[in-house]
Task: structure prediction
Amino acid sequence: MRFLRWGLITVMIALAALPSYSQKVANEKTPTILFICEHGAAKSVIAAAYFDKLAQERKLKYRAVFRGTNPDAAIAPVAEKGLAQDGLKTQGWKPQLVTKKDMDAAAAIVTLGCALPGKEAVAEKVAAWEGVPSPSENYQAARDDIVKRVQSLVDELAKKESQPKGKKKAKR
Result:
Protein backbone atom coordinates (compact mmCIF):
# COMPACT_ATOMS: atom_id res chain seq x y z
CA MET A 1 0.00 0.00 0.00
CA ARG A 2 2.85 2.34 0.86
CA PHE A 3 4.45 1.78 -2.59
CA LEU A 4 1.12 2.45 -4.28
CA ARG A 5 0.71 5.72 -2.38
CA TRP A 6 4.29 6.85 -3.15
CA GLY A 7 3.88 5.74 -6.76
CA LEU A 8 0.69 7.79 -7.08
CA ILE A 9 2.36 10.81 -5.49
CA THR A 10 5.33 10.46 -7.86
CA VAL A 11 3.00 10.29 -10.88
CA MET A 12 1.06 13.34 -9.66
CA ILE A 13 4.27 15.33 -9.19
CA ALA A 14 5.47 14.31 -12.65
CA LEU A 15 2.15 15.32 -14.24
CA ALA A 16 2.16 18.64 -12.39
CA ALA A 17 5.62 19.34 -13.81
CA LEU A 18 4.42 18.87 -17.39
CA PRO A 19 3.61 22.15 -19.11
CA SER A 20 -0.03 22.86 -19.85
CA TYR A 21 -1.01 23.43 -23.47
CA SER A 22 -0.96 27.21 -23.05
CA GLN A 23 2.47 27.05 -21.42
CA LYS A 24 3.67 24.77 -24.22
CA VAL A 25 2.42 27.26 -26.82
CA ALA A 26 4.20 30.10 -25.02
CA ASN A 27 7.38 28.04 -24.66
CA GLU A 28 7.39 27.28 -28.38
CA LYS A 29 7.42 31.02 -29.07
CA THR A 30 4.22 30.92 -31.08
CA PRO A 31 3.78 34.40 -32.51
CA THR A 32 0.81 36.21 -30.99
CA ILE A 33 -1.52 38.79 -32.41
CA LEU A 34 -2.67 41.05 -29.58
CA PHE A 35 -6.21 42.44 -29.90
CA ILE A 36 -7.00 45.32 -27.54
CA CYS A 37 -10.23 47.17 -26.87
CA GLU A 38 -11.14 49.40 -23.95
CA HIS A 39 -12.89 46.80 -21.80
CA GLY A 40 -11.30 43.64 -23.21
CA ALA A 41 -14.78 42.17 -23.11
CA ALA A 42 -16.34 42.34 -26.57
CA LYS A 43 -14.54 43.66 -29.68
CA SER A 44 -11.14 42.18 -28.79
CA VAL A 45 -12.78 38.93 -27.70
CA ILE A 46 -14.65 38.59 -30.99
CA ALA A 47 -11.47 39.40 -32.92
CA ALA A 48 -9.39 36.88 -30.97
CA ALA A 49 -11.98 34.10 -31.26
CA TYR A 50 -12.32 34.53 -35.01
CA PHE A 51 -8.60 35.01 -35.53
CA ASP A 52 -7.83 31.70 -33.82
CA LYS A 53 -10.56 29.95 -35.84
CA LEU A 54 -9.43 31.34 -39.20
CA ALA A 55 -5.70 30.97 -38.48
CA GLN A 56 -6.22 27.35 -37.47
CA GLU A 57 -8.21 26.67 -40.66
CA ARG A 58 -5.29 28.11 -42.67
CA LYS A 59 -2.76 26.17 -40.54
CA LEU A 60 -0.99 29.39 -39.52
CA LYS A 61 1.35 29.26 -36.55
CA TYR A 62 -0.11 32.40 -34.96
CA ARG A 63 -2.52 32.62 -32.03
CA ALA A 64 -4.58 35.48 -30.65
CA VAL A 65 -4.59 37.17 -27.27
CA PHE A 66 -7.19 39.70 -26.16
CA ARG A 67 -6.74 42.43 -23.58
CA GLY A 68 -8.33 45.67 -22.39
CA THR A 69 -6.99 49.09 -21.44
CA ASN A 70 -9.67 49.30 -18.70
CA PRO A 71 -10.88 45.68 -18.47
CA ASP A 72 -14.32 44.61 -17.30
CA ALA A 73 -14.71 41.82 -14.77
CA ALA A 74 -16.15 39.40 -17.36
CA ILE A 75 -16.72 38.99 -21.07
CA ALA A 76 -19.71 40.98 -22.27
CA PRO A 77 -22.82 38.76 -22.30
CA VAL A 78 -23.66 39.86 -25.86
CA ALA A 79 -20.22 38.75 -27.11
CA GLU A 80 -20.32 35.49 -25.16
CA LYS A 81 -23.83 34.68 -26.43
CA GLY A 82 -23.07 35.73 -30.01
CA LEU A 83 -19.85 33.75 -30.21
CA ALA A 84 -21.58 30.70 -28.71
CA GLN A 85 -24.28 30.97 -31.39
CA ASP A 86 -21.47 31.19 -33.95
CA GLY A 87 -20.03 27.94 -32.56
CA LEU A 88 -17.03 29.56 -30.84
CA LYS A 89 -16.26 28.81 -27.20
CA THR A 90 -15.17 31.44 -24.70
CA GLN A 91 -15.51 29.35 -21.55
CA GLY A 92 -12.83 30.33 -19.06
CA TRP A 93 -11.95 33.52 -20.92
CA LYS A 94 -11.61 36.63 -18.76
CA PRO A 95 -10.69 40.20 -19.66
CA GLN A 96 -7.23 41.24 -18.51
CA LEU A 97 -5.32 44.49 -18.43
CA VAL A 98 -2.87 44.85 -21.31
CA THR A 99 0.72 44.98 -20.09
CA LYS A 100 4.00 46.14 -21.54
CA LYS A 101 5.06 42.48 -21.55
CA ASP A 102 1.99 41.61 -23.71
CA MET A 103 2.88 44.36 -26.17
CA ASP A 104 6.58 43.48 -26.30
CA ALA A 105 5.82 39.79 -26.88
CA ALA A 106 3.24 40.35 -29.63
CA ALA A 107 4.14 39.92 -33.30
CA ALA A 108 1.42 42.47 -34.09
CA ILE A 109 -1.00 44.60 -32.09
CA VAL A 110 -4.49 45.60 -33.18
CA THR A 111 -6.43 48.24 -31.27
CA LEU A 112 -10.17 48.34 -31.70
CA GLY A 113 -11.29 51.92 -31.01
CA CYS A 114 -9.18 52.63 -27.94
CA ALA A 115 -6.12 54.62 -26.97
CA LEU A 116 -3.12 52.45 -26.13
CA PRO A 117 -0.88 53.65 -23.30
CA GLY A 118 2.78 53.12 -24.12
CA LYS A 119 2.01 52.82 -27.84
CA GLU A 120 5.13 54.81 -28.76
CA ALA A 121 7.42 51.96 -27.72
CA VAL A 122 5.68 49.49 -30.06
CA ALA A 123 4.27 51.84 -32.70
CA GLU A 124 5.69 49.81 -35.62
CA LYS A 125 3.56 46.82 -34.54
CA VAL A 126 0.25 48.68 -34.00
CA ALA A 127 -2.69 48.77 -36.39
CA ALA A 128 -5.72 50.82 -35.32
CA TRP A 129 -9.09 49.45 -36.40
CA GLU A 130 -11.36 52.46 -36.03
CA GLY A 131 -15.07 52.62 -36.70
CA VAL A 132 -15.97 49.11 -35.55
CA PRO A 133 -19.65 49.14 -34.49
CA SER A 134 -20.50 48.51 -30.85
CA PRO A 135 -21.37 44.84 -30.22
CA SER A 136 -23.83 45.86 -27.50
CA GLU A 137 -25.76 47.96 -30.03
CA ASN A 138 -25.59 45.51 -32.94
CA TYR A 139 -23.65 42.29 -32.41
CA GLN A 140 -24.06 41.06 -35.99
CA ALA A 141 -22.80 44.31 -37.55
CA ALA A 142 -19.84 44.42 -35.15
CA ARG A 143 -19.02 40.76 -35.71
CA ASP A 144 -19.25 41.06 -39.49
CA ASP A 145 -16.98 44.12 -39.53
CA ILE A 146 -14.44 42.48 -37.21
CA VAL A 147 -14.47 39.17 -39.11
CA LYS A 148 -13.87 40.99 -42.41
CA ARG A 149 -10.84 42.74 -40.92
CA VAL A 150 -9.57 39.56 -39.23
CA GLN A 151 -9.92 37.64 -42.51
CA SER A 152 -7.81 40.29 -44.25
CA LEU A 153 -5.16 40.03 -41.52
CA VAL A 154 -5.12 36.22 -41.75
CA ASP A 155 -4.79 36.44 -45.55
CA GLU A 156 -1.87 38.84 -45.16
CA LEU A 157 -0.12 36.55 -42.65
CA ALA A 158 -0.71 33.48 -44.84
CA LYS A 159 0.78 35.30 -47.83
CA LYS A 160 3.78 36.31 -45.74
CA GLU A 161 4.30 32.72 -44.53
CA SER A 162 4.07 31.32 -48.05
CA GLN A 163 6.89 33.54 -49.34
CA PRO A 164 10.21 31.68 -49.56
CA LYS A 165 12.56 32.71 -46.77
CA GLY A 166 15.73 34.47 -47.74
CA LYS A 167 14.32 35.84 -50.99
CA LYS A 168 13.59 39.51 -51.15
CA LYS A 169 10.93 41.05 -53.29
CA ALA A 170 12.21 42.66 -56.45
CA LYS A 171 12.06 46.45 -56.40
CA ARG A 172 10.11 48.10 -59.15
